[in-house]
Amino acid sequence: MQQAVTVTFWGVRGSVPVAGADHVLHGGDTTCVELRSGSDVVVIDLGTGARALGKALDAATCPAVTVLFSHAHYDHVLGVPFFRPLYRRGTAVTLASALAGGTAAMVADLMRVPFFPVGPTAFLADVTCVDLDPSAAWTTGDGLRIAMAPTCHPGGAHAFRIDTPGGALACIFDHAAGETAVDEVLVAFAAGVDLVVLDAGGAALGGETASNGHSGWRQALALGLATGARSVALTHHHPDCTDGILAAREADVTRTAPHAFLARCGDRVTLGQGGPVRMDAGSAVV
Known about the structure:
Helices cover 19% and strands 26% of the residues. The protein has helices at residues 50-56, 74-77, 103-110, 180-189, 217-226, 243-256; strands at 5-11, 32-37, 40-44, 64-69, 92-97, 126-131, 138-140, 144-150, 158-164, 167-172, 195-199, 231-235, 260-262, 268-270.
């Protein structure tokens, strides 16, 4: 019997983590998405949501983790020093990216004095840093195929598509929609997946058009719908977007596309089975 493939959102904010009574429902941690397929655990980005994910990855059931970095802006890497599997003997952790300076150099730069008290030498796991070729697909674990495509974002970033025996996931962040040629490539790249996750982190209140390298929510939704994905998740929520703002936005989104939603920390999607299973309102990922 084929095992279910699940996708869990551990961080859904962009730019900077937030906290407070107005940011409970969707959560305040920055980008971190986990895919589980059989014995494979693949994580896209280690924003501050990586802390909670790392606590949840039990050594007995998760002896190996692959982490893919879309790019190295702070909101996508700040969780690296706090990702518990990196400090667990006997765990194999692969850190992979197509960063121009290399994956190992990024981690070393992130964890150096005067910005952090210890460097990567503090890691106890079996850590391998991989530099990916964006033009070549990468196969790992039990039949997973990982492909990449460039996005429109200051400094560059890459979208990921992961095809598994039980379904396909595409993560397109960070990306400012509007460049027709790039958008068309990304639509083809993510065509027919079970779940597409898109950056909708444009300006806080209206948030309908691209801003500072991020798509507005209407642009992101249109891009997601064009892929023909079974489910569309909008994420990378602006830090100034309160639960009230996001609730109103999600109502607009679902009126347009019932199979689309605004991701919340803790949302879990089983590929091929529609929308997210959600925690009770007011609970939190800790």
